[in-house]
Design goal:
The chain is mainly alpha-helical. The protein has one domain. It has four helices and no strands. Helix 3 crosses helix 4. The protein is globular, with a radius of gyration of 11 Å. It starts with a helix and ends in a 5-residue tail after the last helix.
Length: 68
Amino acid sequence: MMKKLLGIMVLGLLLFSCSESQTPEEKAAIERLNRANQDQKNCVETLGNGVYSYKSLSWKLDNCNVPK
């Protein structure tokens, strides 16, 4: 549980630190991730570690039912 929480925090920090060179679509996806509940964040992380790891963050958010 703690590793997952740490992984999500690192992912968020990494995404936040790269915000200077992001497209508007990437910024919107990161905002959606920030507003997601913990179950949705866990879903996004799971998809990011599996066979769908190559898919975009927006795709993962859509498939984890994170509202736009």
